[in-house]
Amino acid sequence: MATMLSPSARALLEELEGELSSGRNEKPRQVLRAMPTQVLSDIDQVFEETRQRTEFKMSQVYQRTSICDERIKGIGESRHRLLHEQQQVANELSANVEQLREALAHQERLLHQQLADLVRLKEGQLDDQHNDMERRRNRLVDMYRESEEYMRDGASHKYEFIQRAHEMESKMDAHIALG
Predict the structure, then answer these.
(1) Separation of CA 51 from chain center
(2) Considering the entire predicted model, what is its pTM?
(3) Secondary-structure breakdown of the chain: helix, strand, coil percentages, each rounded to the nearest 5
(4) How far apart are CA 173 and CA 179, in angstroms?
(5) CA dist 136 to 104, 147, 152, 177, Å?
(6) 15 Cβ partners below 8 Å, 6+ apart?
(7) Exposed/middle/buried for 140, CB within 10 Å: 0-12, 13-18, 19+?
(8) In b/e form, how buried is each residue of 16-45, taking b as 16+ CB within 10 angstroms?
(9) Which residue has the higher pLDDT, 170 or 34?
(10) Which of 32-46, 108-122, 158-172 has the lowest mean pLDDT?
């Protein structure tokens, strides 16, 4: 569609474009009124071609804008889904953590109870061991006192001392073995 402009038309068109681009509108109007019909026809053709190219580019820009709008809408919907899913997961986490806390609290109570039971059992065993040791100690103390008395009496009653020596040694050995 592009047609070749005559050199004079091209010069006028360039002057006109220069004036228009500088923001002065009066001289271009005068130039347009002074142009011959052929030049005006060339300008109309250039204008038509320029308009068509501009409309085509505008159409492409509009299409790209529409695509961007759709993508922006899709991104917004994705963001909305993401935030919704985040809230759901947060709620599930909170519920699960609460269940875990309850289960842990129950388990803690059970473990404390088991510990208390174990301590009571061990305290009973320790009490029994302590009492047994007290009884052994008391028997050993009694045996020691009896041995002291035997030794004291032995100095004055040597014959009886010698006679009872085997019996006393056996008694002391038995207490030593129990101790």
Answers:
(1) 59
(2) 0.42
(3) 90, 0, 10
(4) 10
(5) 47, 16, 24, 11
(6) 31
(7) middle
(8) beebeeeeeeeebeeeeeebeeebeebbee
(9) 170
(10) 32-46
Specify the residue for token string 């050993």.
140
Token duo for residue 107: 């388990």
Q: Residue 35 corresponds to which amino acid?
A: M
Cβ atoms of 139 and 178 within 8 Å: the answer is yes
Report the alpha-carbon angle 149-138-147, nearest 5: 20
At CB < 8 A and 24+ separation, what contacts does 88-94 make?
A: none
Determine contact, residues 136/178, Cβ cutoff 8 Å. Answer: yes
| Residue whose entry in the numeric block shows the structure tokens 């009653």 | 157
